[in-house]
C-alpha cells in the first residue's frame, strides 16, 4: 500500500486504486491517461490503455492494486518506460505519454506501444511480487522474458529476438517464443512472475 501525504498538491493514480483517505480530497477522472484528447486518441490507436484519476487535497491518501508490491522510482529530468498495467501513481507534475517500442513492443498483447513517464518527481510501480532492479552496462546487455518485464530507464536500446525458453524445450510453449534485449546503460525492472504475452507462454 502506498501512503501519499498531500498539502494542496496533486497526484495522478490508476483509476479505482484509492483504498482510503483522511482529510479533504477531490477526485477527478482524466481522459487519455491524463494527456487530454490527443493522448486519448493515441491510446485508442495503440490499444495501450491507462485510465487515470487526479487526486488533490489536504491529508493522506492510500493507494493499492490487488495487494501487488509497490516500488518507488525517483526521476530527475528523466524518462521512464513502463507497462501501463504496472503504473500505480505519479506526481502530478510528471508528464505521461505513449511511445513506439518496436515490432514486438507490447508484452501484454496490447499493441506495439509503451507508456512513458517523464520529468522530475516520483512514480510508483506495481508488480506481481517484489520487483528486482537489474543494471545494464555496455559490457553486460540484458535479455528479459516479456512476461516479467515491468519498466526500464536510462540510455537503453531495446530490441526483440526469437529464442528458446525452458517451457518451449518442455513442449509447453503456446506460440513463438521471444525475449526483450536491452543494450547500453540503464536499469530494467522485472517481476518474479510472468503474465500472458502475445507470443503465448514464453
TrEMBL record:
<dbReference type="InterPro" id="IPR036983">
    <property type="entry name" value="AIM24_sf"/>
</dbReference>
<dbReference type="Pfam" id="PF01987">
    <property type="entry name" value="AIM24"/>
</dbReference>
<protein>
    <recommendedName>
        <fullName>AIM24 family protein</fullName>
    </recommendedName>
</protein>
<dbReference type="InterPro" id="IPR002838">
    <property type="entry name" value="AIM24"/>
</dbReference>
<dbReference type="InterPro" id="IPR016031">
    <property type="entry name" value="Trp_RNA-bd_attenuator-like_dom"/>
</dbReference>
Amino acid at each position: 500500500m502506498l501512503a501519499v501525504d498531500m498539502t494542496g498538491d496533486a497526484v495522478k493514480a490508476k483509476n479505482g486504486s484509492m483504498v482510503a483517505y483522511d482529510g479533504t480530497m477531490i477526485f477527478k477522472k482524466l481522459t487519455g491517461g491524463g494527456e487530454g484528447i490527443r493522448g486519448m486518441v493515441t491510446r485508442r490507436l495503440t490499444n495501450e490503455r491507462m485510465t487515470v484519476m487526479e487526486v488533490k487535497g489536504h491529508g493522506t491518501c492510500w493507494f493499492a492494486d490487488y495487494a501487488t508490491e509497490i516500488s518507488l522510482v525517483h526521476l530527475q529530468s528523466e524518462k521512464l518506460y513502463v507497462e501501463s498495467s504496472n503504473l500505480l501513481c505519479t506526481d502530478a507534475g510528471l508528464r505521461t505519454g505513449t511511445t513506439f517500442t518496436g515490432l514486438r513492443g507490447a508484452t501484454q498483447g496490447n499493441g506495439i506501444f509503451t507508456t512513458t513517464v517523464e520529468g522530475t518527481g516520483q512514480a510508483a510501480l506495481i508488480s506481481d511480487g517484489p520487483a528486482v532492479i537489474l543494471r545494464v552496462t555496455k559490457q553486460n546487455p540484458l535479455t528479459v522474458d516479456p512476461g516479467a518485464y515491468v519498466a526500464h530507464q536510462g540510455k537503453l536500446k531495446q530490441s526483440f529476438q526469437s529464442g528458446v525458453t525452458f517451457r518451449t524445450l518442455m513442449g509447453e510453449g503456446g506460440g513463438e517464443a521471444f525475449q526483450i534485449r536491452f543494450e547500453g546503460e540503464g536499469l530494467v525492472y522485472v517481476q518474479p512472475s510472468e503474465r500472458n504475452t502475445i507470443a503465448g507462454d514464453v
